[in-house]
């Protein structure tokens, strides 16, 4: 982990906050090439009714449009939460050089937690990865969101029961 990784992860956390403001699970991502951001994304699955609108996919799409090429050779993807299978597969197809993520995802993480998709032998492209950059801050951002969501649901149930 280095200072630039922490800087870019902080930027990804700001994108995660944007997702939360929109009522989405707070996950943010960005693609960096030559120390310049070429694509940003945050979760939009709920609002867009699109299961593929994860932060990573949105950032990869924007980077491809910015660079005029879906192959993002030498780029690094920063994301606040360990990617799922879909997003890990998209990283292989986009040919990014490196993934840096914050919090582990014990339920759907496909890099280190549930699966180790990026370590699968025989893939046509290998992605290097760095785990746990600002992990505590990223995890806290997610935990606070879900804690608040649970409290809101509980309060709504109580109001409904009282009616």
Automatic annotation (TrEMBL):
<dbReference type="Pfam" id="PF00383">
    <property type="entry name" value="dCMP_cyt_deam_1"/>
</dbReference>
<feature type="active site" description="Proton donor">
    <location>
        <position position="56"/>
    </location>
</feature>
<keyword id="KW-0862">Zinc</keyword>
<keyword id="KW-0819">tRNA processing</keyword>
<feature type="binding site">
    <location>
        <position position="54"/>
    </location>
    <ligand>
        <name>Zn(2+)</name>
    </ligand>
</feature>
<dbReference type="GO" id="GO:0002100">
    <property type="term" value="P:tRNA wobble adenosine to inosine editing"/>
</dbReference>
<comment type="similarity">
    <text>Belongs to the cytidine and deoxycytidylate deaminase family. ADAT2 subfamily.</text>
</comment>
<dbReference type="GO" id="GO:0008270">
    <property type="term" value="F:zinc ion binding"/>
</dbReference>
<feature type="binding site">
    <location>
        <position position="87"/>
    </location>
    <ligand>
        <name>Zn(2+)</name>
    </ligand>
</feature>
<comment type="subunit">
    <text>Homodimer.</text>
</comment>
<protein>
    <recommendedName>
        <fullName>tRNA-specific adenosine deaminase</fullName>
        <ecNumber>3.5.4.33</ecNumber>
    </recommendedName>
</protein>
<feature type="domain" description="CMP/dCMP-type deaminase">
    <location>
        <begin position="3"/>
        <end position="112"/>
    </location>
</feature>
<dbReference type="InterPro" id="IPR016192">
    <property type="entry name" value="APOBEC/CMP_deaminase_Zn-bd"/>
</dbReference>
<dbReference type="InterPro" id="IPR016193">
    <property type="entry name" value="Cytidine_deaminase-like"/>
</dbReference>
<dbReference type="InterPro" id="IPR028883">
    <property type="entry name" value="tRNA_aden_deaminase"/>
</dbReference>
<dbReference type="GO" id="GO:0052717">
    <property type="term" value="F:tRNA-specific adenosine-34 deaminase activity"/>
</dbReference>
<feature type="binding site">
    <location>
        <position position="84"/>
    </location>
    <ligand>
        <name>Zn(2+)</name>
    </ligand>
</feature>
<dbReference type="InterPro" id="IPR002125">
    <property type="entry name" value="CMP_dCMP_dom"/>
</dbReference>
<keyword id="KW-0378">Hydrolase</keyword>
<keyword id="KW-0479">Metal-binding</keyword>
<comment type="function">
    <text>Catalyzes the deamination of adenosine to inosine at the wobble position 34 of tRNA(Arg2).</text>
</comment>
């Amino acid at each position: 982990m280095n200072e630039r990784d922490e800087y870019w992860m902080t930027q990804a956390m700001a994108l995660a906050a944007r997702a939360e403001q929109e009522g989405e699970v707070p996950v943010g991502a960005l693609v960096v090439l030559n120390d310049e951001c070429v694509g940003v994304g945050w979760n939009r699955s709920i609002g867009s009714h699109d299961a593929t609108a994860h932060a990573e996919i949105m950032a990869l799409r924007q980077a491809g449009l910015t660079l005029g090429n879906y192959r993002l050779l030498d780029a690094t993807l920063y994301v606040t939460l360990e990617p799922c299978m879909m997003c890990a597969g998209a990283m292989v197809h986009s040919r990014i050089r490196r993934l840096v993520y914050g919090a582990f995802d014990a339920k759907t993480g496909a890099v280190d937690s549930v699966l180790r998709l990026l370590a699968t032998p025989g893939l046509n492209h290998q992605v290097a990865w760095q785990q746990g950059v600002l992990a505590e801050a990223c995890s806290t951002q997610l935990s606070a969101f879900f804690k608040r969501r649970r409290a809101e649901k509980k309060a709504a149930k109580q109001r409904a029961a009282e009616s």
